Amino acid sequence: MRYKTVITRWDESGSRQLEDEMTVEFPLTIILNGRELATLLCLPEKLESLAVGFLAAEGLIEKAADLKDVIVDEHSGLVQITTHKDVKLHSENLFRRVITSGCGQVATFYKAGAACLEWISSPLSVPAPTLAGLALDFQKRSVEYRATGGVHSAGLAWGKELVCFAEDIGRHNALDKILGECLLQGWPTADKVLLTSGRISSEAVLKAARMGVPILISRAAPTSLAVNLARELGLTLVGFARGRRFNVYSETGRIIFSP
Amino acid sequence: MRYKTVITRWDESGSRQLEDEMTVEFPLTIILNGRELATLLCLPEKLESLAVGFLAAEGLIEKAADLKDVIVDEHSGLVQITTHKDVKLHSENLFRRVITSGCGQVATFYKAGAACLEWISSPLSVPAPTLAGLALDFQKRSVEYRATGGVHSAGLAWGKELVCFAEDIGRHNALDKILGECLLQGWPTADKVLLTSGRISSEAVLKAARMGVPILISRAAPTSLAVNLARELGLTLVGFARGRRFNVYSETGRIIFSP
C-alpha cells in the first residue's frame, strides 16, 4: 500500500518539488472481548492475521478454535475479537506497542493528529549543505552498527557539531537516550537538530515534538503518518539524507537552499 | 558493548567454526516510585539517560527537577527512579515495550531464560544450499522495501518454497502476520522455516519458539540475547544470510552441510 505526497528534494543541482510515494503507517486498535487491548502501528495489509497473530504471540489464544469471531473494520482501524472462553487480562497484560501520548486513548490520538502537543515555533534555520554535513558526520559515528550490523543510533547537533550521540538496539531507545541526556544536562532543544539512523515512524516524530526539536533527519524513509504528524506539528522532517542530497517532507522554510 | 561466541559459518568453501562478536541485548527494568513500570530491551550504555528519557517521552516527567533520585544497578538490570511528586499511573500507563512472555514478570523471564517455552524437538533437517536459496527468494519478494525503503518482511517456507509472505512497517508485526496466518489456516509449523528481514532480537526468537518453528533465518545480525535464548530453546538461528553464505548460531545439527 502506497501514499503519495509532494516533497522537496535537494541535491547538487539545487532544490525542486516533486511527488514522492511513501509507506503507509496505520494505527490498528485491537479490541478483545469488548476491551481495548493494544494499538499497533502497522502496514494495512493482512489485518486479520496481524490481530490473531498478536494475540497468539502474547499467549492470549492458542489455536484458531479459541476464536469465536474476528471482525475487521478497516475504515475505523478496529479489529474486534471475541473468544469462546473469557481471556483473563491482568494489568500486566495491558501492554501497548505504541508510545502513550499522554492525552488519553492512543488510537484516537493518532487519528485526531497531535492535538495535545504544541506547534513547534522555533525560528531555527540551517543551510542545506550544513544539514547534509551533519548527516554524514552522524553516519561516520555509527561505528557499532558497522561492526556488528545490529544497532541504531541517534544524535543531537548544534550548529555544525554533533553534541550528543547514543546507540541502542532499538531506534526508540536511542532517541530516548538523547532526550534523557538533554533533560539531565538541562540543554535547550529549540536550537538543535535531531538525527536518527532508523526509519522515521510516527513515534520518532512524536518524540522530536515532545522534545521541542525543530528538525529531524534520517538517512532512511519516513512513513505516511510520520509526514502527516510532522506537518501538523510544525516539525521539519528530512529523510533519505545520503551524501549531498536529501528529501524534505514538511516545514521546508527552516532550510536555506540558496548558496 | 560486544559479546563473543563460537558460531558456524557456511559459504562456497564449506562450513567452519569461528569466534564472532555480536551486539549485546540487555533487559533493563524501570521502577518508578517503587512500582515496576516497563522492561526495555536495550544496549547497556547510557542507562540513566535511557530511563529518564523514557519517562519524559511517555510524559511522566517534564524536567530534571521532577527527579528526586535515579539509581542505576547495572548488575541486576534495574533503574530505580523516585520523583518529588507522585506520578499517577492509570492502568493505561502500564505500557511495556517488551513482549509479555505469558509466564509472569518479563524481566525475570528474560533473565531466567525461556523457562516456560518448550524445547523445540522438530527433526527437520535442510541442506545448506536450500536455506541459502530460500533466503534469496525471500529477499526478492520484498518489493515494497525496495520501492519505499520503509518496510520489513517475514515469510514461511516449506521444502524449497515460500508458502507465506507478509510485510509491515514493524518487524514484529510482520512475524505476527505469519503466526496469525498459520493459526487461521491450521498449518503445522514444526516442518517449516521462518524468515525475517530484520535484525534478530530476543523477541523474534521467542515468537519463533512460541510458533514451534525449528529454523529462523535473517539477512541481518542476531543480538546476544537472541543467540542465548535460541540455544536454550533448541531453535536453529541463522543470520547474515546473503547470497551463498550464512552464519549459524545454534542447533547446527538441523543443517546439512555436506554436498
Describe the structure.
2 copies of one chain form a homodimer. By secondary structure, chain A is of the alpha/beta class. Helix content of chain A is 28%, strand content 32%. Chain A is built from 7 helices and 14 strands. Chain A has helices spanning 47-57, 106-112, 128-141, 143-148, 171-185, 202-211, 224-233, and strands at residues 2-11, 14-23, 26-32, 35-42, 67-73, 78-83, 126-127, 152-158, 161-168, 193-196, 215-218, 236-239, 246-248, 255-256. In chain A, the strands form 3 sheets. Chain A has an 8-stranded mixed beta sheet with strand order 2-1-13-12-11-10-8-9, with helices on both faces. In chain A, a hairpin with a 6-residue loop joins β12 and β13. In chain A, α5 (171-185) runs parallel beside α6 and α6 packs parallel to α7. The longest helix of chain A is centred in the last third of the chain and has 15 residues, at 171-185. Chain A is elongated. Residues 95-109 of chain A have low confidence and may be disordered. Chains A and B meet through β2, β4, α1, α4 and β9 of A and β2, β4, α1, α4 and β9 of B.
Task: Please outline the helices and strands.
The structure is a homodimer of 259-residue chains.
Chain A: E1 2-11, E2 14-23, E3 26-32, E4 35-42, H1 47-57, E5 67-73, E6 78-83, H2 106-112, E7 126-127, H3 128-141, H4 143-148, E8 152-158, E9 161-168, H5 171-185, E10 193-196, H6 202-211, E11 215-218, H7 224-233, E12 236-239, E13 246-248, E14 255-256
Parallel strand pairs in A: 3-6, 7-14, 10-11, 11-12
Antiparallel strand pairs in A: 1-2, 1-13, 3-4, 5-6, 8-9, 8-10, 12-13
Helix pairs in contact in A: 5-6, 6-7
